[in-house]
Amino acid sequence: MNIYVSNLSFNVQDEDLHGFFSEYGEISSAKVITDKATGRSRGFGFVEMADDAAASKAIAELDGSVADNRTIRVVEAKPKEDKPRNRSFSGGW
């Protein structure tokens, strides 16, 4: 199960995110999303857990908890929707 974690402190690293969830079960991956230009955290990340039951328990227990002095939001990640690009061409044809 893929888990979305938001309202993370900008100090939280991948290893910290992994640590928050590791007591609930095996972590396949833990990634804090960073800004491509600056390399700074964007304040959210994703954790992937192989066991759905463990992931559900982690979500239930960690949602609303405090990590690095911030109340984090933990929910099941929804698949990214393909949004049509809004392209406007006004080439004067």
SSE arrangement, N to C: EHEEHEEE
Radius of gyration: 17 Å
Number of DSSP strands?
6
Q: What is the distance, rounded to the nearest whole angstrom, between the alpha carbons of the first and last residues?
A: 49 Å
Low-confidence stretches: none
Structure notes:
The strands form 2 sheets. Strands 2-3-1-6 form a 4-stranded antiparallel beta sheet, covered by helices on one side. A two-stranded antiparallel sheet has the order 4-5. The protein has a single domain, classed as 2-Layer Sandwich (Alpha-Beta Plaits). It starts with a strand and ends in a 17-residue tail after the last strand. With 93 residues, the protein is α+β, with helices and mostly antiparallel strands. The protein has helices spanning 14-22, 52-62; strands at residues 2-6, 27-34, 41-49, 66-67, 70-71, 73-76. It has 2 helices and 6 strands; from the N terminus they run βαββαβββ. It is globular. 20% of the residues are buried. The longest helix has 11 residues, at 52-62.
